[in-house]
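Lay summary. Proteins are chains of building blocks that fold into shapes, and those shapes determine what they do. In this project we predict the shape from the chain. Here is one chain we studied, written as its sequence of building blocks.
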Amino acid sequence: MTIRQGTVKAFDGTASTATVQIQGSVAIWLRDVPVARNIASGEMTAGRKCAVLFFDEPNPQDAVVIAVYT
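And here is the predicted shape, written in a compact code that computers can read:
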């Protein structure tokens, strides 16, 4: 498991997924990343920093946003 810093680019409250840009990756954004249910949807605003947990780092589909912060 690996935790990486990212930036929230978009949030889908209905599906509880986010589009995230991982720090250091300018051109690649991860889409449809699940968001932990304990994060209030009002906190998932574009531009906020986030922590993304990768269970299997080579597979970005196996990740979850676990925190947002300033």
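What the prediction tells us: The chain has a mean pLDDT of 94.
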